[in-house]
Amino acid sequence: MTTTTVGKGADFKKIKIIEGHDIVAGRYKATFNDEYVGKVNNSYDNQVLLITAINAYLRGLEGDVLDPSADNAVTVDIEAQRQAWDGIGTDTSSWDDQKVKETSFQSKVFLAANLKFLDAVEDLTFKISV
Fold it and tell me: Mean pLDDT, to the nearest integer, of 29-54?
């Protein structure tokens, strides 16, 4: 990518970052499609099982693809799930975040991740004082 956007910053210009993103996205999509779609009821407990599996996979990528000093984790996307309920006319204004997480929406699973991908060493600033 040569041009950045609001949703895709300078990191998306980096090949190593995009390769890492593709590794993560490919695996969780394959797991979801192979093990969950049409086979598992959409309950919060089952979503937690999926989240746990993805987070275990992410921990295995730390040090090579993901920065081990970051909190690389997947969770229920509370904002998206709340918007889905609100979108069909359900008033969620009295729901706390935990209530939103525990109230799955139809057949949809809303997840969000905060991941920090490792980049390659490419630039050096070396200040020497005498």
Answer: 93
